[in-house]
Amino acid sequence: MENIKHTNQEFEDIALKVREHIVRMSTAGGCFTGASLSAVDLVVYLYTEFLNITPFNLNDPNRDYLFLSKGHDVPALYGTLSELGFLQKSRLEKHLSLDDHIYWHPNTHIPGVEFHSGSLGHLPSVALGVAMDIKIGGGDNKVICIMGDGELNEGSCWEAVLVANAYQLDNLIFVIDRNHFQANMRTEDLIPLEPLAQKFESFGAAVKRINGHNYTELHEAFCAYPFQKGKLNVVIADTVRGKGLPSIQERADRWFCNFSADEISQLLLELHGEHTTSLTSETLIVR
Amino acid sequence: MTYEELLTATALSNEQVIVMTAENRALVRNLPAVLGKRFIDTGITEQTMIGAAAGLALRNRIPVVHALAAFLTMRAFEFVRTDLGIANLPVKLSGFIPGLLSDANGPTHQAIEDISIMRGIPNVTVFAPADEDDLVKMLPQIWQSPNPAYTRINTRKTGYEHEPFELGKAEIVSIGSDVTILTYGLMFEQALIAIDILKNEGLSVGLVNMRSLKPVDEAVILQTAASSNLIVTLEDHFLTGGLYTIVAEVLLQYQTTAKVLPIALNERWFRPALLPDVLQNEGFTGKQIAEKILGYQTGHVQPTLLTPEFSE
Asked: I want to staple B106 with a disulfide (CB 3.0 to 4.6 A). Which of A105, B226, B262, B303 is the partner?
């Protein structure tokens, strides 16, 4: 295994700041708070440790690619990109403002966003195309596509897996943010996905299943890339919706949140483990 | 009465009705408990939901299906065309947050070609209520009709009390000889403000709530062309394929013409933000519409815009 460049403490410090950004965006119109908190550790790990993507190589055809197909968790990406110098932190204050392009789904006005998303099940195939071209040209860059578990309901995700298998795209990594919820309820209560690893394996992929909040496990899994020659790589990262905020954690009704200013102050304390927030703002009707 | 109350009453009185959703429950939150097996959530699978609705309709069911308007009309487009259109099955599509109502979601969620693509399918009928009152007055006939139907869901409350609905008929709010605004859906709210300003400026102003875009009220369009100096088509939709196109088609068909000012989104997606900001930025507030028609700035004040009911 390659030596890890960062300590757990360093990852956790960045992740905490990213979570603070997410909480601060969860007001005055709100954002997909619960849905993005589950992806924070994953996104922070990938950008700081695994991927060759920097603010200075965004136009380099030899860079790695990260596609965020689960577009509604973009607050995790906004936070990470701003902590890592891709995006000025002051731009996050323009969330939902006409003065900038920081809204509920990703778009290419944000440095580091490779492609817009929001309609689920699109980017697995876009990532597939990029990986195909890299194979044609003989490059060795890696292509990652982060998908939600609810997103796997969409048939287009599985078409992309079939085609990746046909073209032996071992330079492509599908990462599933397996937080066990889709918008309104637990995945297993609506459209069951398990046994998920076996589903991908039966489609020809090489699969690793890990705790998506554990940096050691993340590193062990991604360092094993490519998992098997000629096979699509799939990482199922088990995560917790709302991770970091016990008052909203694993709650079906806290997918999209629009908190009051007072609740935001309390939630910021809660992130540091110093407080339990009593939430009084209305639970939004989610779709 | 709300959309959900109407749908609940309709489903309870008619065993044929099946309520379906591709995991968009905002409009049907209480229905699983009320309907039991007649509530079907297929997960985030718009195409499969439409195909399944066709199968249910083959067994004499009337599926009322729900998803965000963008995904219902575009993701599942070929399933709507091929499974519902060719077979002419009575499946009723309820598209949520159409047009500008998707506010800060971004272009992926903007259903601003929905009227155009749905009306292009033979047998499919298309409706766009001005507000919640209009919606609940329209839906009973839409749901009883033998055709597939697409409705642009709009649950905003404007306080306006609408006339009873008739398929294929527009609602004439007022008649004017200088200018007549033809509109539908969300923009009705702003059109009411615009006609007040125009009247204050001394114009004779008409307003028509089109409601039924397919079949469309050709007589109202022809009558407006004959009696009003200017027709304004106002819509939160691409210029291509919506009301402006419909008016052009009708005028050409009857070999007549008129002076028409289209207010629509021309070859671009709108800038995402919260709804009041979107209306302002796109020039779609009542005051801006009136000023566009007049060609000059007025001293009138735009009333504060209501915030959206569902901000996500």
From this structure: A105
Contact call for B43 and A96, based on CB within 8 A = no
Q: What is the CATH number of the domain that holds A218?
A: 3.40.50.970
Q: Is A168 part of a structural domain of the chain?
A: yes
pLDDT, average across residues A31-58:
97
8 Å CB contact of A286 and B106: no
Q: Count how many domains chain A has.
A: 1
| The residue type at B111 | A
Pairs of residues, one from chain A and one from chain B, whose beta carbons lie less than 8 Å apart = 98
Place of tokens 């993701």: B75
Average pLDDT, chain B: 96
CA distance B55 to chain A (A): 19
Is A248 a member of any domain?
yes
Cα A31 to Cα A182, A281, B68, B107: the distances in Å are 15, 14, 18, 16
CB contacts of A121 in chain B (<8 Å) are 44
Residue A2 lies in a domain: no
Nearest to A105 by CA among B37, A115, B300: A115
Alpha-carbon dihedral sign for residues A54, A56, A59, A60 = negative
Mean pLDDT of A148-175: 97
Residue A223: pLDDT over 50: yes
Best of B3, B4, B23 to substitute, by most chain A Cβ atoms within 10 angstroms, is B23
Any A CB within 8 A of B172 CB: no
The phi and psi torsions of B265 (rounded to 5 degrees) equal -90, 115
Reported as a single tens digit per residue, the pLDDT across B164-208 is 999 999 999 999 999 999 999 999 999 999 999 999 999 999 999
Task: Give the pairing of strands B179-183 and B39-41.
Answer: unpaired
Tokens of residue A177, six digits? 């943010």
pLDDT tens digits, residue range A141-159?
Answer: 999 999 999 999 999 999 9
Residue in chain A nearest B23 by alpha carbon: A287
- Do the domain assignments include residue A238? yes
- Rounded to a whole number, what is the distance in Å from the CA of A13 to chain B's nearest CA? 30
Q: Residue B223 and residue B106: Cα distance in Å, rounded?
A: 38
**What does the DSSP assignment read for B190-244?**
HHHHHHHHHHHTT--EEEEE--EEETB-HHHHHHHHHH-SEEEEEEEEESTTSHH
Quote the percentage of chain B above a pLDDT of 70. Answer: 98
- The sign of the torsion formed by the CA atoms of B27, B32, B34, B35 equals positive
A158 SS3 class: helix
Question: Does the beta-carbon distance from B310 to A284 stay under 8 Å?
Answer: yes
Task: Please give, rounded to a whole number of angstroms, the shortest distance from the CA of B111 to a CA of chain A.
Answer: 12
Closest approach of chain A CAs to the CA of B73, in angstroms? 13
